[in-house]
Specification:
The complex is a heterodimer. Chain A is of the alpha/beta class. In chain A, 31% of the residues lie in helices and 15% in strands. Chain A has 21 helices and 26 strands. Chain A has an 8-stranded mixed beta sheet, with helices on both faces. A 6-stranded parallel beta sheet of chain A has the order 2-1-3-5-7-9, covered by helices on one side. Chain A has a 5-stranded parallel beta sheet with strand order 11-10-12-13-15, sandwiched between helices. In chain A, strand 1, helix 7 and strand 2 form a beta-alpha-beta unit. The N and C termini of chain A lie far apart (102 Å). About 8% of the residues of chain A have low confidence. Chain B is α/β, with parallel strands linked by helices. Among the domains of chain B are: 167 residues, Rossmann fold, CATH 3.40.50; 241 residues, Spore Coat Polysaccharide Biosynthesis Protein SpsA, Chain A. Chain B is 33% helix and 15% strand. The longest helix of chain B is centred in the first third of the chain and has 26 residues. Chain B starts with a helix and ends in a 20-residue tail after the last strand. The N terminus of chain B is likely disordered. Classes of the chains: A alpha/beta, B alpha/beta. The interface between A and B is large, with 150 and 189 residues. Strand 26 of chain A pairs antiparallel with strand 25 of chain B, so a sheet runs across the interface. Chain B: It is an enzyme of class 2 (transferase). Chain B: Keywords: Coiled coil, Disulfide bond, Endoplasmic reticulum, Glycoprotein, Glycosyltransferase, Golgi apparatus, Manganese, Membrane, Metal-binding, Signal-anchor, Transferase, Transmembrane, Transmembrane helix. Chain B: Part of the heparan sulfate polymerase, a dimeric complex composed of EXT1 and EXT2. Could also form homooligomeric complexes. Interacts with NDST1. Interacts with GALNT5.
Chain lengths: 720, 722
């Protein structure tokens, strides 16, 4: 009995020991390695040499500081370069004539389109591209002032088997007197080569022209010179474009399918290996591989996808799949080795897609599964951002191409990567305004800074100064009393010349009077005098309290990218007229705040004057109306958010005009109809309705609460 | 866990056995037992501290000199690698199978042991041999996480042949030596570091040594030799970085506007610069080498202008912009000096690929001007806003500190870039690469950054945390069920001693009602991301909040839809700085400001449940559960910290008091409880390392709230009734 116990105990001990021994795993391995090390040749980390201090420098200071110099002078070298580095080795320095773009900024960057000849067939897609350029702010009809030239010949489809193939391009372009071996020319192309090899051959010699091409191969891509663009179909909208399909940030961000591959399937030929391998990871449940045979119908499944695969450089459809996929807010999983991603110059794709190596295809499922929820959430939002900023319409694709080239030409006045890759996207960030991130309303949070503590009041004056009791006098006093007001600018838009300095009341802040030249849009001109980030735009007859101004300014500081104002208006869709309607009635929601009294960032002045087309501004000037609606359109198009209405003591009452000479414009029904028309014209130019409704207004925390008035900071607002 | 259980069982039985045995047996057993125990301890020791044993064995081997390196004689006929292929890309010339998939997403780098290569006549292939810089680089890599000593597991190989400076190399022999490396295999996955490429007369912009498919980390690439996405452009290291310590200067205006400190600038450029100086006078300082000093280390540290002597590189700190012109080579060591001085480099080197340009955004730290436009330099620089110049000065210094300051920084950055290519899904972000620590610290990257107004239709899920106030709970459920957008009701039953009432007793409501029973009575259960929550919007509500009207709740949901990344709640609170006590204070009085909303009634995104449960910093979660208080403050801190935004208080203040219960403030009214909440704020602020809460003076009301307008036409008429 005793012996048995003894053995049991002993056995138990041995077991414990063994268990412990095996537990950490690799113990034996370590032991083995330790033992072998002492015997065999030792592979060890880089030694800590005893004579480290005596090692020589890799180069003497002299050698580093005193350049050996070359015989060739820099000017000669540059000239020699353009002879050596051309055609397939083109770079901006050698193949682009900068002297054609002498003038600064937008003025210097003008694009000319060759007139197309009568019997030319121009495809729908190319027509859209030409329209986009023709309507852009860079277009010029004078080839002498052009910096960039675009062909009138359709070069989109260079597949010889295609119906849209244009022959004899070579001879025709050589006939152009401005061709100059392609210098400063931009050539758009979507398809090149033909089945089965789909080479990059365009069928004509592009010379030193910049190639904007879809599905570019890295091998043929001339970095810093060519532009890789996304492929788009002929149905791609000219402007506006659908918003992305991501409307919710669901948590966990998984959808029905984890991974889907889509693409043509060839039994033989290029990429068939990969495609066959793909078939192996198809499991029918959360990883599906869709091939050409089922093309079309399963498109809707994209909406259920988290991630989607895209394949192979040779298949030109790729970028199209990718674009659709981006819109559907599934994250592209790119497996096409050697494919230059669209706008890769400026877009940081690794923040928006999952890139994998085609050779490691079988690892993709595990890689994809290992992507954390947070990252999926971020990737999805980022793909949406990119879609909306650069891909959703032909306008955006073309403009992005032009802006990329413009940034190269004026490299010291260009956007940095941060501007291109964060909201609202590079197209809405004009580097001529500033290249400094903190000068824009979009980057405060990303930079960890907060908006300035002061504002500039811009008062739009239209009636002549006749008495000291005019509303503008009262307004000046109210505004200048605000502790956040740093200066006041009066924009004199009256027929009479501005009154002398002494006529204005004395004020604690500097007062400037500038001439608005009787244009309504002048109130949104980017006056250099505006030194603060915040602008308080005012009509001369606005009735406000200092505390209202102060409160609204503090609200603006929380929402610096939006318009913060007082009187709201709303738009709606009128199904009977099949048009947009505009209402000034009291409603439960609003989408516009009038800029007769509103805070916004001064950058919007610049956007208003330089981003919007001349035609819209002319409309505003001609009718002396709608400038506020246009401003609201612009800001909502940039932010995708509604404006913010803040508390106001009095509702706008239609006060009788003090002079009694002129009737108030907004009492006029014609005025109202004009505004209705404006809403439709603007929506037409933007290509969609950017205005967004909001259902709340922001009040002071204790507004109209049953608390002692003494406690309230903004008690004035509650007085009747 | 199993092991612990087994040993526990054993030891508990042990003592019970012993007294029953005979003495000699007892001694025998005790001896046996101690032997076994000792064995166990020894095994355990071995398992948990094996590294100390290994490294102890290594010490003796480190006492070695560079001269001990084994000699390798190169036969004249030994093969020469091919010249690098300009078409090489990661997917064509790099063997990715060696790197494979690993959970850490980190490449493994192997360094060849040092060997001394000589030709048949015994002449070494390099005039310097191993340089101090290359040695620093290799030892930094061997100390980094990338290093492996297992050649079979390596993904990247770094030869110990020093090719930093082409001038000291015999090109043909160096190439032969490379080809002799045991794993060379056409240069596949090999990485060479070179800072001074080319030689007279034409100075190639890439290393002239034939190298097959090896990757090149080069310090002077031009756009024609740089294989984008394959090579890495690195800086030319300046040894002055190690010798001279330049303290960081506050960004701001400097004595000079533009400074040119390079010697031996081509006379064409110098003439141009002189002309600029004539036009703009004192703003420019053009330095050259001192004619009275002979060559040598002393001369390298001095610069002269018309007989006046300046210390180099200290003088660089006196200028806003510093010119870095190309010479025979594109890469200049001066760039490193300039960055170190916090001077904004003005780079004039056409076609130059800036160091680490794959990841660094040089537009934020430098001005690149085409050589042709040298004459316009002054006007171009003058047009840059002051604030941006300051920003660039800060950025320049940060680039130097992080990526230029030492061979270690250069080496590790290069490997990180290659690592990012091989595991792109785990790559470092733009912000991580480019934001200096001060920006990283103060900026936020909201996880819900896309401006979306989610559709109304999915509605929200109400999560009611309850313990045993069944009657009150049922009233709350009945009240909430009237809200049109309610999609689901989730009751978190936090009482383990009592079962929830029978199903038949619960109020009948039109939406699904689920009860979740928790394992422990913890406050954090309220913020758990239950799978049952299928909507984005969550309404957290206490079981005694019966005073909120259906209009108020629906309005709250509408406001949340416009602010899906914020807490949208009803009762607001404030944090204040107590000057007397020198710490934060919690304020629940009626104030004009708000920095928190109570989660006793608040809408928020379900994502924040994830964050609260899995990403709460420090021990905050445990602290909250232990004190049964402040979970709402913790949530406010968390959301404000990650979004940088204030919460939104909706609708007028109302008395959160119900007739029969102690109300939401019930506990808070207790004085000690209030003191504890102040403590919470101080505790959380110290854990977060900052005070993330933002103070605002606004709340959200319906557009027509209290307006002179017929109530029945308002969308949310029943708001603010007490």
């Amino acid at each position: 009995m005793q012996a048995r116990k003894k053995y049991v105990l002993l056995g138990l001990c041995a077991c414990c020991w063994l268990v412990l021994f095996y537990w950490g795993g690799g113990v034996q391995l370590r032991l083995l390695r330790l033992l072998t090390r002492h015997r065999g040749e030792v592979v060890r980390p880089w030694p800590n040499w005893t004579d480290r201090a005596f090692l020589p420098r890799y180069a003497h200071l002299d050698e580093l500081q005193t350049d050996p110099g070359t015989a060739e002078s820099p000017r000669q070298r540059r000239q020699a370069w353009s002879a050596i580095y051309k055609d397939s080795r083109c770079r901006m320095e050698t193949c682009f004539d900068f002297t054609r773009c002498r003038r600064r900024g937008r003025e210097g960057f003008r694009v000319y389109i060759y007139p197309s000849e009568k019997n030319d067939r121009v495809s729908e897609s190319y027509r859209k591209i030409l329209t986009s350029i023709g309507e852009s702010r860079y277009y010029t009809s004078d080839p002498r002032e052009a910096c960039l030239f675009v062909l009138g010949i359709d070069t989109l489809d260079r597949d010889q088997l295609s119906g849209q193939f244009v022959p004899n391009v070579d001879e025709r372009i050589r006939g152009y007197p401005l061709w100059n071996d392609g210098r400063n020319h931009l050539i758009f192309n979507l398809y090149s080569g033909t089945w089965p090899n789909y080479t990059e051959d365009l069928g004509f010699n592009i010379g030193q022209a910049i190639l904007a091409k879809a599905s570019l191969n890295t091998e043929h891509f001339r970095p810093g010179f060519d532009v890789s663009i996304p492929l788009f179909s002929k149905d791609h909208p000219q402007k506006g474009g659908e918003r992305g399909w991501l409307v919710r940030n669901t948590i966990p961000p998984r959808r029905k399918y984890l991974l889907m591959f889509k693409g043509k399937r060839y039994l033989t030929g290029i990429g068939s290996d990969t495609r066959n391998a793909l078939h192996h990871i198809h499991n029918g449940k959360d990883i599906v591989s869709l091939t050409t045979c089922r093309h079309g119908k399963d498109w809707e499944k994209h909406k259920d996808l988290v991630l989607s695969g895209s394949l192979s450089p040779e298949e030109s459809l790729d970028s199209f799949i990718c674009a659709t996929c981006v819109q559907a807010a599934c994250i592209p999983v790119l497996l096409s080795n050697g494919w230059e991603l669209p706008f890769s110059d400026v877009i940081q794709w690794n923040q928006a897609v999952i890139e994998g190596d085609e050779r490691l295809l079988l690892q993709v499922p595990s890689t994809v599964r290992a992507v954390g929820n947070e990252r999926v959430l971020a990737l999805r939002q980022r793909t949406q951002m990119l879609w909306e900023a650069y891909f959703s319409s032909v306008d955006k694709i073309v403009l992005t191409t032009l802006e990329i080239i413009k940034d190269r030409v004026f490299s010291h006045i260009s956007r940095n990567k941060y501007m291109w890759n964060s909201l609202p996207g590079g197209l809405l960030v004009l580097p001529e305004y500033s290249t400094h991130l903190a000068h824009f309303p979009f980057y405060y949070l990303g930079l960890g800074v907060s908006p300035g503590q002061e504002f500039t009041a811009v008062i739009h004056a239209v009636s002549p100064l006749v008495s000291q009791s005019q509303p503008i006098m009262k307004l000046l006093q109210v505004v200048s009393k605000s502790k956040y007001c740093s200066q006041i600018i009066i924009l004199w838009n009256s027929e009479k010349p501005p009154p002398s300095r002494s006529k204005w009341p004395p004020m604690p802040v500097p007062l400037t009077v500038t001439d608005g030249r009787r244009k309504t849009t002048s109130r949104f001109l980017p006056h250099v005098a505006i030194e603060t980030e915040a602008v308080l735009s005012l009509d001369e007859d606005t009735v406000l309290l200092t505390s209202e101004v102060n409160f609204a300014f503090l609200v603006w500081r929380s929402f610096p990218e939006r318009i913060v104002g007082y009187p709201p208006r709303s738009h709606f869709w009128d199904p009977l007229k099949r048009a947009w309607g505009y209402t000034s009635k009291w409603t439960n929601d609003y989408s516009i705040v009038l800029t007769g009294a509103a805070f916004y960032h001064r950058y919007y002045h610049y956007l208003f004057s330089h981003y919007l087309p001349q035609s819209l501004r002319t409309l505003v000037d001609r009718t002396s109306n709608c400038e506020d609606i246009l401003m609201n359109f612009l800001v909502s198009a940039v932010t995708h958010l509604p404006p913010i209405k803040v508390a106001q003591r009095k509702q706008y009452k239609e006060l009788p005009s003090p002079q009694g000479t002129k009737s108030v414009p907004w009492a006029n029904p014609e005025h109202f109809n004009q505004r209705q028309e404006c809403v439709n014209t603007f929506a037409n130019w933007f290509g969609y309705m950017p205005l967004v409704h909001s259902q709340f207004r922001l009040d002071p925390v204790l507004f109209k609460d049953q608390v002692s008035v003494l406690r309230k900071k903004y008690k004035d607002l509650e007085k009747a | 866990r199993i092991r612990m259980y087994a040993t526990g069982k054993y030891s508990s039985r042990g003592p019970a056995l012993i007294p029953r045995m005979k003495t000699k047996h007892r001694i025998y057993y005790i001896t046996l037992f101690s032997v076994v125990l000792l064995g166990l301890i020894a095994t355990g020791m071995f398992q948990f501290w094996p590294h100390s044993i290994e490294s102890a064995a290594d010490w003796s081997l480190d006492k070695r000199s560079v001269h001990d390196a084994p000699l390798v004689r190169l036969p004249v006929s030994s093969p020469i690698p091919e010249r690098g292929d300009l078409g090489c890309r990661m997917h064509t010339c790099f063997d990715v199978y060696r790197c494979g998939y690993n959970p850490k997403n980190r490449i493994k780098v192997y360094i060849y042991p040092l060997q001394k290569f000589v030709d048949e006549l015994g002449v070494p292939i390099s005039s310097t041999g191993l340089s101090r810089e290359y040695n620093d680089l290799l030892s930094a890599i061997s100390d980094s996480d990338f290093y492996t000593d297992d050649v079979t597991r390596a993904c990247l190989f770094i030869p110990s042949i020093d090719v930093l400076n082409q001038n000291s190399l015999r090109i043909r022999e160096t190439a032969q030596a490379l080809a002799m490396l045991p794993r060379w295999d056409k240069g596949m996955n090999h990485l060479l570091f070179n800072m001074l490429p080319g030689g007279p007369p034409d100075y190639n912009t890439a290393l002239d040594v034939p190298r097959d498919r090896a990757l090149l980390a080069g310090g002077g690439f031009s756009t024609w030799t740089y294989r984008q996405g394959y090579d890495v452009s690195i800086p030319v290291y300046s040894p002055l970085s190690a010798d001279v310590e330049l303290p960081e200067r506050q960004p701001g205006p400097r004595r000079y506007f533009i400074l040119s400190s390079q010697t031996a600038i081509h006379r064409e450029y110098r003439a141009e610069l002189e002309r600029l100086k004539e036009e703009n006078g004192e703003a420019l300082l053009l330095l050259d080498k001192c004619s009275n000093l002979s060559q040598g280390a002393a001369a390298a540290r001095k610069r002269c202008y018309k007989g006046q002597v300046y210390d180099y590189p200290q003088i660089l700190q006196e200028s806003s912009f510093c010119v870095v012109l190309r010479g025979a080579r594109l890469g200049q060591a001066a760039l490193s000096d300039v960055l170190q001085a916090g001077c904004v480099p003005v780079i004039l080197a056409d076609s130059y690929i800036l160091p680490f340009s794959e990841v660094l955004d040089w537009k934020r730290a430098s001005v690149v001007i085409p050589e042709e436009k040298l004459s316009e330099m002054y006007t171009i620089l003058k047009s840059i806003p002051h604030r941006q110049v300051e920003e660039m000065q800060r950025q320049a210094r940060w680039f130097w500190e992080a990526y230029f300051s030492s061979m270690k920084a250069i080496g590790v950055t290069t490997l990180q870039i290659i690592n990012d290519r091989i595991y792109p899904y785990a790559a470092r972000t733009y912000e991580q690469w480019n934001n200096p620590p001060v920006v990283k610290w103060s900026s936020v990257n909201s996880p819900l950054f896309l401006p979306l107004i989610p559709p109304r239709a999915p509605g929200f899920t109400a999560v009611v945390l309850t313990y045993d106030r069944v009657e009150s709970l049922f009233r709350v459920i009945t009240e909430i069920s009237k809200v049109p957008s309610l999609a689901k009701l989730l009751v978190v039953w936090n009482n383990q001693n009592k079962s929830p009432p029978e199903e038949s007793l619960w109020p009948k409501i039109g939406v699904p009602l689920k009860v979740v029973r928790t394992k422990e009575n913890k406050l954090s259960n309220r913020f758990f991301p239950y799978d049952e929550i299928e909507t984005e919007a969550v309404l957290a509500i206490d079981d005694d909040i019966i005073m909120l009207t259906s209009d108020e709740l629906q309005f709250g949901y509408e406001v949340w839809r416009e602010f899906p990344d914020r807490l949208v709640g009803y009762p607001g609170r404030l944090h204040l700085w107590d000057h007397e006590m020198g710490k934060w204070k919690y304020e629940s009085e009626w104030t004009n400001e708000v920095s928190m909303v109570l989660t006793g009634a608040a809408f928020y995104h379900k994502y924040f449940n994830y964050l609260y449960t899995y990403k709460m910093p420090g021990d905050i979660k445990n602290w909250v559960d232990a004190h049964m208080n402040c979970e709402d403050i913790a949530m406010n801190f968390l959301v404000a910290n990650i979004t940088g935004k204030a919460p939104i208080k909706v609708t007028p203040r109302k008395k959160f008091k119900c007739p029969e219960c102690t109300a939401i403030d019930g506990l808070s009214l207790d004085q000690t409880h209030m003191v504890e909440r102040s403590e919470c704020i101080n505790k959380f602020a110290s854990v977060f390392g900052t005070m993330p809460l933002k103070v605002v003076e606004h709340r959200a009301d319906p557009v027509l709230y209290k307006d002179d307008f017929p109530e029945k036409l308002k969308s949310f008429p029943n708001i603010g009734s007490l």
